[in-house]
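This protein record is not my work; I was only asked to verify it. Take the sequence as given and treat only the tokens as open to question. I have pasted the whole thing underneath without changing anything:
***
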Amino acid sequence: MKPAVLEVMRMNRVCRMVLVTSVGSFILVIFYFQSTLHPVMRRNPFGMDICCRKGSRSPLQELYNPTQLSNTAILHQIRRDQVTDTCRANSVSSRKRRVLTPNDLKHLVVDEDHEMIYCYVPKVACTNWKRVMMVLTGRGKYSDPMEIPANEAHVSSNLKTLNQYSIPEINHRLKNYMKFLFVREPFERLVSAYRNKFTQKYNTSFHKRYGTKIVRRQRKNATQEALRKGDDVKFEEFVAYLIDPHTQREEPFNEHWQTVYSLCHPCHIHYDLIGKYETLEEDSNYILQLAGVGNYLKFPTYAKSTRTTDEMTTEFFQNISSEHQTQLYEVYKLDFLMFNYSVPSYLKLE
């Protein structure tokens, strides 16, 4: 079968997407060739064929052809360049073939009205961002994100994801829509996932699905109750499970502790904006400003007393051996490098 070669983007680099159709599904094979040029600010890489929304400028036009260059725009260019440099340095993109399937696109939420695509990463404010996306795509159904119950924000039918589109529709949106994601210090995110999924008694589905397996593999002389319930997994056991080669061969990580690199494919899909959990409010409201809704929609902010902090993360790693710390760092190394997070001072790497 002859593949259809479609141009995805131009931005001092060339990216070509080869789409191969098959029965009942499709495969995206992306070739990503990056240039050595790194200007501080680049013009709109998508040419002049972006159709304005109802007479207004699209988010991409606002980002790459700003009416006034800001420090925020320059900061996000630096973050994009960091991803580009990491992809090249680690040979995960340049001249290397990568196959993406529909399953790889299920985290990319599409907002048709404002021409945006958001790749959600669990444990990085994704509940609130899904709420915001529901307001943006609800066409008047919602006005206040915080009025939307958290469980409703995670109902898959409430938001449309990129894997639900046809190949030409996917290509058009990847080319013309503003794509963004939010990231967090990898080990802080990991501890947050552990605390939420394994220390809360109400998360029985995770205890049954993963807790029982972790106890069975990682705990010597486990009691029958622990094997049956899986509700008392220790952080050391969770880490041992993650670095166990058998785990990685068996199935992909659950999305709550999967790497951002594997969830959002930033070496194969060009993200225009990379927000950070550490600057969540500023980055979120900048995106809403680019979308043209900043005057009436603000990202929800509230102090969460149970939030996982750096100090808390340090405490969790105290009982992890240097060998296991080193192996775990290798699992999440690309996320550390790609999003410019330094090696934590508490780590004892071998």
Remarks:
- The mean pLDDT is 84.
